[in-house]
Each structure stands twice: as C-alpha cells, then as structure tokens.
Amino acid sequence: MRDQFGRSIEYLRISVTDRCNFRCIYCMPESGIAWLPKPQILSYEEITEVVRQLAPLGLKRLRVTGGEPTVRPELATLIAMLRGVPGIEDIALSTNGAKLPQMAAALRAAGLDRVNMSSDSLRPERIAAIARRNLGFDPVAAALAAEAAGLDPIKLNVVVIRGVNDDEVEDFAALTVDHAWHVRFIELMPVGDLAGTEFERVVPSDEVLARVAARFGALDANDGPARGNGPARYQRIPGALGSIGVITPLSHTYCDSCNRVRLTADGRLRTCLYGDHEVNLRDALRAGEPMAPLFEQALANKPREHELLKLRVGGLKALSEVGG
Ligand code: SAM
Ligand code: SF4
C-alpha cells in the first residue's frame, strides 16, 4: 500500500473514543466538549472489520488510542479481536497511564504488545495541574505495572511546555538510566487550551537534548528501541538501560517518512494529523460496502506534509479528536 508520494502505509492509529478522564491543558478544553453520540462511535466489531479489510492491503501495525482508550469499557476484548486478524503483527496502546496498574495484565493477556504512556510530570501536584484532574496517578508506578505485565517496549511521552514542566527534562532523562524505558520528549503542537501562548511555549528538541547532555554528558546517537513505527529519533545516556527520543513536529518535520493513517472514533479515515484529508468509512461500512476503494481514494489524497507552520493553525481543535 503506497500513497501518491510512494510512502508505504502499513500503520493505522485507531481512536476508540473521544472521551477522557483527563483534560490536559494542551489537548482538551476544560469543559464544554460536545462528545460524540454513542451511535456514531464504531463498535468493536466495526473497528475489527475495518482492520480485517485493510490487512490484505498491507496493514501490519496498529495503535489503539483515544481520547483515552482505557475509559472505553472492555478494551481488552477489542485487543483480543484485533489480535485475531491475520496479518496484524504488532498492537500498541497509547494511554495516559492512569488505569494501567489495574489493566496492564489483562491487556497483555489479550494480546497487546506494547504501550506508550503520556506523562508530563513526575510531581503529583503538577500532574494534576496539567491534566486538570487529580486521579492520584503515579507515572512511575504505572510504567512499572506495564513492565511487570510484559509489555515491551515501554515508552513515556513527555510534552515539554516552557514555564510548565521544562524544568523536569533532566528528571525524566534520569529515569532511563536504571529503567529500560524510552522517554520521548515531544514538541508542543499549537492546538489546545494554552490561551494563545502555544507557540511561545514550544521548547525545541535541540534545546531539550542540549540540557540532557549538559547534565549527563554526550549522548550516544541513533540508539533506541528496535521496534517503533514512528517519527522519534533516539539517543542514549552512556550506559543507560533506556533511551531518550525526541519527536519534532515543528522544528524538524518528518512528513517524508510518514507511514500512518488514522481512524477516528466515529469512523473517519484521516491521512494527515492536520488538515481535513479524510474519508468516511463508517457510512460505507454500515451500508455493507467494501473499504478498499475508499482507502485507496484516501491514500491518493494524503498530503505531502502538514501545513502547521505555514498557516500557524491546524485543522484540529484537539489531538484527542484523532488520537495524537
Ligand atoms: N490519552 C492518550 C494519551 O494521553 O497518551 C492517547 C491520546 S493523546 C491525544 C496522544 C498523544 O498526543 C499524547 O502523548 C499527548 O501527549 C499528545 N498530545 C496531545 N496534544 C498535544 C499537543 N498539543 N502537542 C503535542 N502533543 C500532544
Ligand atoms: Fe486525555 Fe490524552 Fe488528551 Fe490528555 S493527552 S486530555 S490524557 S487524550
């Protein structure tokens, strides 16, 4: 499966819900969110059918995301259904981690391979301030639970926000010394609820890496997890068990190697995180029509790159709409 620019598309991010138990300041508004009505949301059977139809076209890797996927009931049931689709080699989950301690073992037993956990602070009051919810969540405990359940690799995503959590870069980097975890620093994308200061709050990844090197010494380049589908570039503190990655949607775009498409909770296939390049799979699915022609049409229209910097606006109100 290739798009019009010859990029091979084998990775689907599936948003299973638009809802979330957090309201991260960079992702969702605090209130006034119009949730999708339940009948519009794809059932687990419908999601599995989309995957079943796309697998013969070359789809191999899945990421289950949200909103927060763990708030949708019986998530392990979906994982088991997806695991049963021939051709699917890898299933990952993106989660805020709050429910991982209770759920990690069941998700692993259902066939989940690995997990990316968002955690923007290691300090309880700050976690609650960024998430605008206080669930008493300890990201280190959640990552340990995921590790104990056998999920591998474990990646921690940290959105670095100037004046909010950028003083914790070194603390997150230090976690990789004794844990085989991959800490990925993400440049803030200018969507969300930061009162118009989003662009000023972006901390370029080069600055983040310079800070880590200033504390821990020169990093070993190109050294990270073997398995990964995404845009992160990895380095390692010498001798550390884990690695440090940066995801740089703004300072170095990675659209040239984009291998992914996204399925929204209500069944739209989006071929770019930003912009309105999408086709409605749900209506076709519910009408009993095949997915392949729509998928081909979507790939034919997948843009070469996002226009975030050019326009200074995205085509999205929040990444929770499409799962990041
Ligand atoms: N709820 C799950 C989570 O938090 O990991 C999955 C969905 S969340 C939308 C996926 C990823 O998008 C998270 O790592 C989150 O930090 C990231 N994200 C959301 N809004 C962002 C923004 N404005 N800039 C950068 N990353 C963002
Ligand atoms: Fe929820 Fe994830 Fe968005 Fe935070 S980043 S509000 S946890 S969907």
Question: Main attributes?
Answer:
single chain, 324 residues, alpha/beta, TIM Barrel, twelve-stranded mixed sheet, 12 strands, globular, binds iron/sulfur cluster
Please describe what this structure looks like.
This protein has a single domain, classed as TIM Barrel (Alpha-Beta Barrel). The chain has helices at residues 44-54, 75-83, 100-110, 124-131, 139-148, 169-178, 198-201, 205-216, 281-286, 292-300, 308-311, and strands spanning 11-15, 61-65, 90-95, 114-118, 154-160, 181-187, 220-221, 233-236, 243-247, 260-263, 268-270, 278-280. The chain contains eleven helices and twelve strands. Helix 1 runs parallel beside helix 2 (75-83), helix 3 (100-110) packs parallel to helix 5 and helix 6 packs across helix 8 (205-216). Helices cover 29% and strands 17% of the residues. It is globular and about 55 Å long. Helix 3 links the parallel strand 3 and strand 4. With 324 residues, the chain is of the alpha/beta class. A twelve-stranded mixed β-sheet has the order 7-8-9-6-5-4-3-2-1-10-11-12. The two termini are 22 Å apart. Residues 20, 26-27, 65-66, 68, 94-96, 118, 157, 159, 186, 188-189, 191-192, 319-320, 323-324 line the site of S-adenosylmethionine.
Please sum up the structure shown:
With 324 residues, this protein is of the alpha/beta class. It has one domain (11-321): Aldolase class I (TIM Barrel). 29% of the residues lie in helices and 17% in strands.
